[in-house]
Structure formats: C-alpha cells, structure tokens
Amino acid sequence: MENLPTCKPVSQYLTELKKHLETAREFAEQHAQKAQEQYAKYYNAQHVALPQDIAKTLASSIVSSRLDYCNAVLYGTPNLTTSKLHKVQNCLARVMLQRRKFCHAQPLLKSLHWLPISQRINFKLATLAFKIQSTSQPEYLHQLISSQHPSSSMTLRSSTRPLLQAPHTRTAYGSRAFSSAVPAIWNNLPTLVIEANSLPAFRRRLKTHLFIVAFENSG
Question: What is the pTM of this model?
C-alpha cells in the first residue's frame, strides 16, 4: 500500500507562526532602540561647534555607517518602523546645518543631496540587483531572481527592457522577500537607469532618478 504524505497538525503551524511573529517583534524593538539612541546622540552633538566641512564629512559618515547598515531588510516594513530612521536623518541634517529643532527637514536633505530613508533602501536593493546581474554573484542571491522573457508576440519597445521576473505573492509579508522586492524596484526604474553599462554610471543615474522622485514636489 502506497504511503500517503502526512500533514502537519494545526498546532505545529501555529507554533511556527508564533516564532516568526516573535522574531519580527524583537527585530522591531531592537530597531526602535537603536534609532532612539542615535537620535539622542545627534542632538547632544548640536552643542559642539564644528567647521562646516568637518561637520558635513562626519554627518555623511554617520549616514553611511548607521542609517544605511542592513537597511535593505526594511523594505516594505510599516511606516512606523522607517519613520524612526527618518527622524534620525532629519535630526542629523538640522544639527549639521545648524537649524532649529522643528525646522522643516526636507529642504535640508535636498540641499545636502541626501536621499530620504525609503529611497536609500530602494537604492541599496537596486544597486545589489545590478551587481548580481553583472557578475552572477553571490550565487545564493542570483538564484532568487531571473530575467523576464517577453513572448514573441510582444513588439513594443518596452518589451526589450532588461526586466526581472516578478513572482506572484498573496501577502504583504511575501512581497518583502528578496525575490519579490528586487523585481518590484528594478522593473519600475527608467530604461536609462537599468541600461547603464557600468556600476558607477548606474549608481549616478539611479541616485538622480530617486532624488527627483523624492523631491519633485518640494519646490
């Protein structure tokens, strides 16, 4: 008699779900604590007078080493999570340009040529996608994405764009997976960006595009 596959009991599924939820909760708490610590640190630095060039170098270093560290995992997270990093970035911009605490931050970010947090996350993932497609490395990530092959009946010029295959997802949590997030970002980039022939050119065009998207309504 053929052995039929056995299904896991509902209680086991619930246990696994609980573990995933606990992991997500712990990650959110750690993220909030880190943001709060950096927020306090930057405002304490407001009382230290530094030359403009040194302050700008220091601020850019903090943004790169702190705010950009592992930020790709924040793609698709609730606004409540990323808003904490937005506050830290806004605070740092005010401190660097010696503005008041409640000064509107968007013009400051624009003058500093800093991408907001959400665009920085997209920049990280899009750059990673370009590297993976150019080098096929790292292999474990390269296996998660694949090129989109248009049907022979498609004759539009847009069909020749080097797009990525976007898997179908049923939940918002599933859309945060690398295999879904990267195609979602990549396929929405202008042709001029994704057809860049080198990494430096791609990064320049990508930042210009994201900068326009972030500040097009700021005047």
Answer: 0.72
